Amino acid sequence: DMLDPERLIQCPLVKHHWIRARRFPYHLVKCKESNPEIAKKLATCPFNARHLVPRADLSDHIMKCNDKAFVEPDVVRQSSESSQEQLNNGSTWQAPPSAEDWET
Question: Is this model's pTM higher than 0.85 or not?
Answer without folding.
Answer: no
